[in-house]
Amino acid sequence: MKSTNIEKEYILGLDIDRINCSATLFKQSRVVAHVEEERFIRIKRAPNRFPINAIKYCLSLVPEGLNSIAAINLGFDHEMFTYEVPMYFLEEWSKYPSKPPEAINFEQKYLNQKHPRLIRDLIVDELSKADLIKVGVPPIYEYTHHYCHALCAHITSPFDKSLGIVVDGNSELDTYSVWDCDNTRLTKLFSKQLPHSLGW
C-alpha cells in the first residue's frame, strides 16, 4: 500500500461501487476498522450510494480526521477499465448485433461511470459536502480489483504466507487469478483475462 507521508500512518480504503460500498481504515498494514454504508442507512447493500457515513466513522478513530490520512486507496483500477475493457464490449456487440438495446445501454453507462476523472471528482465532492476537507485531499491511488481481493483475504488470515485464488468475473481485465501472498507482498502467479470468464 502506498503512503506518501511517513509521518501519517493511516490509510483509508474505499469501495465506491454500485453496491456494498464501504470504508476501511488501515494503520500501516493492519486493519483498524471496516464498515459498510448499509449499517448506517439501514438499506441492504446500499445500492448507488457513496459510503460517506462509513468514512466519517473511520475518520472519527484518528486524531485529526482526514488530515491524519496519508492516502486514499481504491480497490479498482478505473483507468485500466476505462481504456482497455471497451474493446471487449465492442467485440461482443459486433458478434451479437441483435443484443437487446437495454443491455448495450447498461454497458455504455457502466463504462462511463468508471471513468477515473469522474471517480476522483466524486470522492472530492462528497468529502467536501460532508465538510471533511480541512487542508486538502490525500493522494488517491488505485489497485487492481483481484489484487485487493487477494490482499484482503491474506492480511485478515492468521498466516504470514498463503496462496490466494480469486474468481471474480467483474474486475478490470482479470477474471480469475492466483497469487503468492507473503506478508504484505503479493505476486501474481497466473491469471485469465477477458473474454474468458465464469461470470462476465
Automatic annotation (TrEMBL):
<dbReference type="InterPro" id="IPR003696">
    <property type="entry name" value="Carbtransf_dom"/>
</dbReference>
<dbReference type="GO" id="GO:0003824">
    <property type="term" value="F:catalytic activity"/>
</dbReference>
<dbReference type="Pfam" id="PF02543">
    <property type="entry name" value="Carbam_trans_N"/>
</dbReference>
<protein>
    <recommendedName>
        <fullName>Carbamoyltransferase domain-containing protein</fullName>
    </recommendedName>
</protein>
<dbReference type="InterPro" id="IPR051338">
    <property type="entry name" value="NodU/CmcH_Carbamoyltrnsfr"/>
</dbReference>
<feature type="domain" description="Carbamoyltransferase">
    <location>
        <begin position="20"/>
        <end position="199"/>
    </location>
</feature>
